[in-house]
Design goal:
heterodimer, A: alpha/beta, 11 helices, B: alpha/beta, 20 helices, about 35% helix, binds thiamine diphosphate, binds iron/sulfur cluster
C-alpha cells in the first residue's frame, strides 16, 4: 500500500461535500454521517484514496454527502461494486454503506460473499428495521408483528440478526454501534479501518418517520445501562449502572447468563473476560437480546486473516514470476501448435 | 464430396481419389472422447494445410446414461483444398461408435456416404437403449449408404492386449482406433497426435502407449486391405492459403486474447468478472489462465455481482469486462443501465444460446439481439457489435475495447455457442501492428466536473479514484448536465436522455462504412446477416453467383449503431433477405429503422444454417 501522508492535517469539515443533506430532520443518518466525517482525518489518508460505495435506500445516499470519491450504485449490489473497485485498485480505502433492506434483503447474497471472501473493505450497515426510502414497509430485520403499509396486520416472518448473519458468512471483524453514540462510533470505525479484510459494522439507526424509537428498549436513557453492554477486548463483560452485572457461562450449559457480582457468591473472577478473537464468544454475544440480556455494543469479533485481494494479487505475481511473458501477447498467440504456410 | 482425379500413393493398395473437400462427423457416447478425437483430426488437418471449419455438438448433460440418444456427442469437420466457410451441410463420412450415435446422426449423412460403425457396440442392450426395434445393421436402414461394419471394440482390445490394461481402460482407446482409420483414409500423418498423447499421458505412459497402439492399429487396418476393396483412401490437396504462421483457434480463445490485446493496446489493466454458464464459461477459463499477463479474473456469486464488479473495476480505472449467456444477460441488465447512466466503459460478452429461459444451453441461436439493443428499463442506449467467426472474435474484442473506452459506454459483444466452441485455422496477427487505443484518465482538476463532455465524442472524462483534486460522486440518480450533481429537473432529464442517445448514435461516424462481402453493391437480392451465419451465407451466395445469380452478401459487425451508409446500400437492391437464427430480430430492426420491405429467413432449431437452406431461400425469392 502506498500511503502518502497528506501535506496538511484535514478536519472533519474537509470531508463534507457541498451537497445539501436531504434526510428527514431528526433521522439517525445525520449522526452517523457526522461520526464518519469525524473519523476520516484520523485515517491519515489522502482524501483521493477514499471511496464510498452504496446501494439504494435513504442510508445509501451517504456518498453524496462526503467530499471523497463516491459511487451510489443500485439496490443491494454495493458489495459487488466495492469488490470490483478493490480488485482494480487494492490501494483504495473502500467504505460500503448499506441499509437493512439493501444489504440483507435484495443484496443478502452479495453481503454474504464479500464477507466470505474477506475483501478488504469497511461495511457500515445502517439498521433501522424498516424500508425508509420506499416509505416504511417492514424489512428483513423488522421484529415479528411489525405493522407497516405492506403488513397492516403485523409482519409474520422472523427477523434476521445482521451480526449473526455476518458471523455465519465468515466475517472476521464484527462490531455494533448506535447512531446517537457519537463518542463510540468513530472508535468503531477506526477499528474497522485498521482491520485488514471485510469489517462489518452494524449501526442501530433510528428512522424517525417510519420506525421511531424501535430501539428504545435498549437505547432509551432509562434502560440503556441495563440493556447495553459495551464490550472491550481483555476486559470483563460487566454492565449496569454500577457495573456490577456481568455475563458468565451458565454452569452445565453452553449458554450465557446474567449474574450480579456480590450476589449468590458471584465474584468478579467468575465473569467472562471479552476475547474478541473467540468466534464462539462472538456468537453468544451477537445472539443476546433485551430484555433478558443486554445488547452487545463494540467490537464483538476481530480475528484477521489475509484479505481476498492479497491472495488474488499473490497468484498474479507468482504467475508472472513463473512464466514471464517475453514478447508479450504476440508470444502467447504463438504458443502451442502452430504451422507455417509458405508461398 | 467432389472428385477430380485419382492418384496412386506408394504403400497404398489402391489409388487415392482426389477430393476438393470432405465432411467427416465423429459421433459416439459422451464418454467416448469424440470432442478430443475431432480436435486431433482438426489439428492434423490444419497441419496438412487444408482449410477447415468445425462444429462440436455435445449434450447439455455431463454424463448422460451411456448408450442413450441424448448422451450422444458429435464433432463435425469440413476440410478441403479450397476456402472452407462452414462445417459442412452433410457429412460424407459418419463414424458412429454406438447404435445411439447412428440413430441420432444417420439422417444427416449424405446419401451414399460412408457409415463406419463399431459393430462391437451393437449389442441387443445398446440397440434397445438407442430405441432401435430391429437391428439397423441388417434391417435395410443402411441401404441408402455405404456401411463399413467393423468390430472396433474387439480390434482395439486386441491392439492394446500386450499392455495389460483393464478392459475398461483398454476400451477407452476405441476413439483413437477410429481416428487412426480416418487418418489412413485421408492420408494423414500421425506424428502430431502421437506427440499430443505422449504429453497428455506423461504420467501414465502405459495409457499413452495403448492409445498410440490403437491409433496405429486403426491406421494399419486401412492400409492392409482389411477394408472393403471398393473403399480406397482419399487425397485432399493443400488449400491455397495466405502464407504465414497459423494456429487453430476457437471463438472463446480468440475473444480472450482479443480482450487482453485490447487492454494492452489501451495501456490499461483488465478485470474480468463472470459467473459460469454454458457456453460462456470457456471465456472465463481461458482468461483465468492468463494471470501472467496481469489479468484479474473474478468468479462472482452470480451474474449480477459479476457485472457490478466489472463496473466497479472500470470506475477504479481498470477495463471492466463481464460475460454470460442469455439467462445471465437478463440478470445483468439493471447494472448495465447504471453503467449507461454513469457513463463508464464496460465490455459485456454474450455467448448466445437457444432460449427462452434455460432453453437449450449447448445449442446455438442469435435471439438476444433485441435484448442487447433494447433490453433494459428506460431509454438506455449502448453499442452492440457481433463476431462472425471464431477468429473474428479477436478483432471484435479489440473493437469493443476501443468503443467502450473512447465513448465511455458499455459495449455488448454478441457471439454464440457455435462460434465459442468451433475452431478454425487462424493466420496469427501481429498485435503490434494494431493501432493503439488512446486512453487518458483525467488528472487536471482545473475546470473539472464528472460530466464535462468531449465536444466530438460526447464522452465524459474517465476520472478515477486515487486522483487528487477530482473527488466526485456519481450514481444512478439523473445527473445535471452542467455539474453532474443529482438533478430531478425535467428539462435536464430531457437533455441528458438526448445526449446519451446522440453519443451512441455518433459512433456511426467512427466505424467503417458497410461493405458488401460478396457481389455488387446493387442487384436483385441482398442477403444480410450478422454473427455466425457468415459461413453458410457466403458459401451459398458464392455458389449461386457462380451460376450467374445476381445476389450479394452483406454482413454486419456493428449492429448498434448501424453503419451510416447501410440504408442507402440496401436501397440498391430489389429485395433484401435477412438470414438469422431467431424469429426475425435484425429484419424487424432494419424495417423499423429504414422503412424498407425487408424479408426474413429464420431458423431456430439450435443448429446452424445449412448452405443448401440459404441457397433454396435465395432461389425461391428470385424465382429461379
Ligand atoms: C431493483 C430495485 N428494487 C426496488 C427498489 C426500491 N427500493 C429502494 S430503497 C428500498 C429499500 C431500502 O431499505 P433499506 O435498505 O433498509 O434503506 P433505508 O431507506 O431504510 O435506509 C427499496 C425496496 C429499487 N430501488 N431497486
Ligand atoms: S425515512 Fe427514515 S431513514 Fe429515511 S431519511 Fe427519513 S428518517 Fe431517515
Amino acid at each position: 500500500m502506498n500511503v502518502t501522508t497528506p501535506l496538511e492535517k484535514l478536519t472533519p469539515k474537509d470531508f463534507a461535500s457541498d451537497q445539501e443533506v436531504r434526510w428527514c430532520p431528526g433521522c439517525g443518518d445525520y449522526a452517523i454521517l457526522k461520526a464518519v466525517q469525524k473519523v476520516m482525518p484520523e485515517l491519515n489518508l489522502p482524501k483521493e484514496n477514499i471511496v464510498f460505495v452504496s446501494g439504494i435506500g435513504c442510508s445509501s445516499r451517504f456518498p453524496y454527502y462526503m467530499s471523497t470519491y463516491g459511487f451510489h450504485t443500485i439496490h443491494g449490489r454495493a458489495p459487488a461494486f466495492a469488490t470490483g473497485v478493490k480488485l482494480a485498485n487494492p490501494d483504495l480505502s473502500v467504505w460500503v454503506v448499506t441499509g437493512d433492506g439493501d444489504g440483507l434483503s435484495i443484496g443478502g447474497n452479495h453481503l454474504l460473499h464479500i464477507l466470505r471472501r474477506n475483501v478488504d473493505v469497511q461495511i457500515l450497515l445502517f439498521n433501522n428495521e424498516i424500508y425508509g426510502l420506499t416509505k416504511g414497509q417492514y424489512s428483513p430485520t423488522s421484529r415479528i408483528g411489525t405493522r407497516s403499509p405492506s403488513t397492516p396486520s403485523g409482519s409474520v416472518d422472523y427477523p434476521l440478526s445482521p451480526t449473526e448473519f455476518a458471523l455465519g458468512a465468515g466475517a472476521r471483524f464484527i462490531a455494533r454501534g448506535i447512531d446517537t453514540q457519537l463518542k463510540l462510533l468513530p472508535d468503531l470505525f477506526l477499528r474497522a479501518y485498521a482491520h485488514r479484510g471485510a469489517s462489518f459494522v452494524e449501526i442501530f439507526q433510528n428512522c424517525i418517520v417510519y420506525n421511531d424509537n424501535v430501539f428504545a428498549d435498549f437505547t432509551d436513557k432509562t434502560v440503556a445501562d441495563d440493556h447495553q453492554i459495551h464490550v472491550t477486548h481483555g476486559k470483563p463483560l460487566l454492565f449496569g449502572k454500577d457495573g456490577k452485572r456481568g455475563l458468565r457461562v451458565k454452569p452445565g450449559s453452553f449458554d450465557l447468563e446474567v449474574v450480579t457480582v456480590g450476589e449468590n457468591g458471584i465474584a468478579e473472577k467468575d465473569i467472562l473476560v471479552h476475547d474478541e478473537t473467540s468466534r464462539t464468544l462472538a456468537q453468544l454475544l451477537a445472539a443476546m437480546r433485551p430484555p433478558n440480556f443486554p445488547m452487545a455494543i463494540g467490537v464483538l469479533y476481530c480475528n484477521p486473516v489475509a484479505p481476498y485481494g492479497d491472495r488474488v494479487y499473490q497468484q498474479i505475481e507468482e504467475a508472472k514470476a513463473k512464466a514471464p511473458a517475453p514478447g508479450g501477447l504476440n508470444a502467447l498467440l504463438r504458443t502451442g501448435h502452430t504451422w507455417q504456410v509458405s508461398d | 464430396m467432389s472428385t477430380t482425379a485419382n492418384v496412386k500413393v506408394e504403400s497404398d493398395r489402391a489409388p487415392r481419389q482426389i477430393l476438393e473437400s470432405a465432411v467427416v462427423r465423429f459421433a459416439g457416447d459422451s464418454g467416448d472422447g469424440m470432442q478430443l478425437t475431432g480436435g486431433q483430426f482438426t489439428l492434423t488437418t490444419a497441419l496438412a494445410e487444408n482449410d477447415l471449419a468445425t462444429f462440436p455438438d455435445f449434450p447439455a448433460e455431463i454424463r448422460a446414461p451411456t448408450g442413450t440418444t441424448y448422451g450422444v456427442s458429435a464433432f463435425q469437420i469440413n476440410f478441403g483444398g479450397r476456402r472452407i466457410k462452414t462445417a459442412g451441410d452433410e457429412p460424407d463420412v459418419l463414424v458412429a461408435m454406438n447404435p445411439a450415435a447412428l440413430k441420432v446422426n444417420l439422417g444427416d449423412l449424405r446419401r451414399g456416404g460412408l457409415a463406419i460403425l463399431d459393430i462391437g457396440s451393437f449389442t441387443e442392450r445398446n440397440l434397445q437403449k438407442a430405441g432401435f426395434k430391429t437391428n439397423p445393421l441388417t434391417d435395410g436402414t443402411l441401404d441408402a449408404y455405404r456401411p463399413i461394419k467393423v468390430d472396433i471394440s474387439r480390434l482395439t482390445l486386441e491392439s492394446v492386449k500386450a499392455l495389460g490394461l483393464s478392459q475398461k481402460e483398454a476400451l477407452r482407446c476405441k476413439n483413437m482406433w477410429a481416428l487412426g482409420l480416418i487418418y489412413w483414409m485421408y492420408g494423414r500423418e500421425r506424428t502430431a497426435t502421437t506427440k499430443w498423447l505422449r504429453a497428455k499421458f506423461a504420467k501414465r505412459t502405459d495409457l499413452a502407449d495403448a492409445n498410440i497402439a490403437a491409433m496405429d492399429a486403426g491406421h494399419a487396418f486401412g492400409e492392409t486391405a482389411e477394408m472393403p476393396s471398393d473403399i480406397g483412401g482419399f487425397l485432399i490437396p493443400k488449400a491455397d492459403i495466405q502464407p504465414g504462421l497459423y494456429r487453430t483457434v476457437t471463438g472463446s480463445e480468440a475473444l480472450a486474447w482479443g480482450l487482453v490485446a485490447g487492454a494492452e493496446l489501451a495501456g490499461i489493466q483488465m478485470t474480468f468478472a463472470s459467473y459460469p454458464i454454458t457456453p460462456a464459461s470457456t471465456l472465463l477459463h481461458a482468461l483465468a489462465r492468463l494471470k501472467s499477463y496481469g489479468i484479474v479474473t473474478f468468479q462472482a456469486e452470480d451474474e449480477i455481482a459479476a457485472v457490478c464488479a466489472a463496473i466497479g473495476a472500470s470506475y477504479a480505472g481498470s477495463l471492466g469486462v463481464t460475460s454470460s449467456s442469455g439467462p445471465g444477460m437478463a440478470l445483468k441488465m439493471e447494472a448495465i443501465g447504471l453503467a449507461i447512466g454513469v457513463e463508464l466503459p464496460l465490455v459485456v460478452v454474450n455467448s448466445q444460446r437457444a432460449g427462452p429461459s434455460t432453453g437449450m444451453p449447448t445449442k446455438t441461436e442469435q435471439s438476444d439481439l433485441f435484448q442487447a439493443i433494447w433490453g433494459r428499463n428506460a431509454d438506455s442506449p449502448l453499442a452492440v457489435i457481433a463476431s462472425r467467426s471464431p477468429s473474428d472474435c479477436f478483432d471484435v474484442a479489440i473493437e469493443a475495447v476501443r468503443l467502450a473506452t473512447k465513448y465511455m459506454t458499455p459495449v455488448i459483444v454478441l457471439t454464440d455457442g457455435y462460434i465459442a466452441n468451433a475452431s478454425e485455422p487462424w493466420l496469427i496477427p501481429d498485435v503490434n501492428a494494431y493501432p493503439k487505443i488512446p486512453v487518458a484518465f483525467r488528472t487536471d482538476p482545473e475546470g473539472f466536473h464528472p460530466f464535462l463532455r468531449d465536444p466530438k465524442t460526447l464522452a465524459r472524462p474517465w476520472a478515477v479514484p486515487g486522483t487528487p483534486g477530482l473527488e466526485h460522486r456519481i450514481g444512478g440518480i439523473e445527473r445535471d448536465y452542467q455539474t453532474g450533481h443529482i438533478s430531478y429537473d425535467p428539462a435536464n432529464h430531457q437533455k441528458m436522455t438526448e445526449i446519451r442517445a446522440a453519443k451512441i448514435r455518433g459512433i456511426a461516424r467512427d466505424i467503417p462504412l458497410q461493405a458488401v462481402e460478396e457481389g455488387e453493391a446493387k442487384g436483385d437480392l441482398a442477403v444480410v446477416g450478422w454473427g455466425s451465419t457468415f459461413g453458410p451465407i457466403t458459401r451459398a451466395v458464392s455458389n449461386l453467383r457462380e451460376k450467374g445469380v445476381r445476389v450479394s452478401h452483406i454482413h454486419l459487425r456493428h449492429i448498434w449503431p448501424l453503419p451510416a451508409n447501410l440504408k442507402e446500400l440496401l436501397e440498391g437492391f430489389d429485395r433484401v433477405l435477412v438470414a438469422e437464427m431467431n424469429a426475425g430480430q435484425l429484419s424487424t430492426l432494419l424495417r423499423a429503422e429504414y422503412l424498407l420491405p425487408i424479408e426474413g429467413l429464420n431458423k431456430v432449431s439450435g443448429q446452424p444454417f445449412k448452405i443448401a437452406e440459404i441457397e433454396a431461400a435465395i432461389q425461391s425469392r428470385l424465382g429461379k
